[in-house]
Design goal:
This protein is α+β, with helices and mostly antiparallel strands. It has ten helices and ten strands. The longest helix has 17 residues. It is globular. The termini are far apart. It comes from Sphingobacterium alkalisoli. Pfam families: HipA_C.
């Protein structure tokens, strides 16, 4: 299978991303993003800019935070290692050789929009209030609206635990969504996963929302109480902990295979080890 070409260099991407952010298009968030579609004949595909309605989102390199595409791609691969369903994603090179992160939108199919609501909308809060909640409150909303709530709260618990372990203290309300499907309302594939402690080490909070009333000094007992608030049985919770412990043996291999440089690979792994020790893994 031939990789689609991206006929844009980093300079053009930077300018286009600035325009996209300045126009306040419906791709919210701090990291510059561009909407793309796949066009061309079989065997000669190319990614082209299409405004809002593309099937793909492209995130170029950031001048402020280097290696963001590489960090996001690695974190998404680690999520898959921990049996968390992710949006399709990859790294792709620009025409001048820089790596950019690309992901397929799960709220688009064959040019049509699929009904997706994020937890900011479901909490009836404005985008600027996306940090004004708790993981327990999000759990209650997921239980209230999802068709298979017993399974989806387990998916949600695994995601919050994984985000903590990978230094992601930016999992706010906009980063959780429910998707309307022919099987009912389901917890969506995950997206926008970053090791923020690596990219922005000044921010030392453990979490974006509160857990047990806190964002710092999170302990294993906080996750125990969290599981209880979601209605997850102790045996199921303990099996999740065991599963995470077993799968953690493969983390270093995935980090070593990533496109990060040596120093960032080491630092990424150290952050995970520190977080695992923090909650007694």
């Amino acid at each position: 299978m031939q990789v689609p070409t991206l006929e844009l260099d980093q300079e053009k991407l930077n300018k286009l991303a600035e325009i996209t952010v300045n126009e306040r298009l419906a791709l919210t968030g701090v990291q510059p993003k561009l909407s793309l579609s796949l066009a061309g004949e079989k065997g000669n595909k190319r990614l082209t800019l299409v405004g809002l309605w593309g099937d793909y989102i492209l995130k170029p390199q950031s001048s402020e935070f280097p290696f963001m595409p590489e960090v996001e791609d690695l974190t998404m691969h680690l999520a898959e290692l921990f049996r968390i369903e992710t949006a399709d994603h990859a790294l792709i090179r620009t025409s001048t050789g820089e790596l950019a992160y690309i992901t397929k939108r799960f709220d688009r199919k064959n040019g049509k929009k699929i009904h997706v609501e994020d937890l900011c909308q479901l909490s009836e809060l404005l985008t600027e209030q996306k940090y004004k909640s708790s993981y327990e409150r999000v759990g209650k909303i997921i239980k209230k609206y999802t068709t298979n709530s017993g399974l989806d709260v387990i998916k949600y618990f695994r995601l919050v635990l994984f985000s903590f372990l990978t230094g992601n203290n930016d999992m706010h309300l906009k980063n959780f969504s429910l998707v309307h499907t022919d099987k009912g309302i389901l917890f969506s594939p995950v997206y926008d996963l970053l090791n923020v402690n690596l990219i922005y080490p000044k921010d030392q909070e453990d979490l974006a929302l509160t857990l047990g009333g806190r964002k710092r000094k999170i302990k294993r007992s906080d996750f125990d109480q969290f599981a209880m608030s979601l209605g997850i049985a102790e045996q199921v919770r303990d099996n999740i902990y065991k599963d995470f412990s077993v799968r953690s043996d493969q983390i270093q291999d995935w980090i070593n295979k990533s496109f990060l440089n040596g120093e960032n690979k080491d630092q990424y792994f150290k952050i995970i080890i520190k977080k695992m020790h923090q909650i007694g893994f």
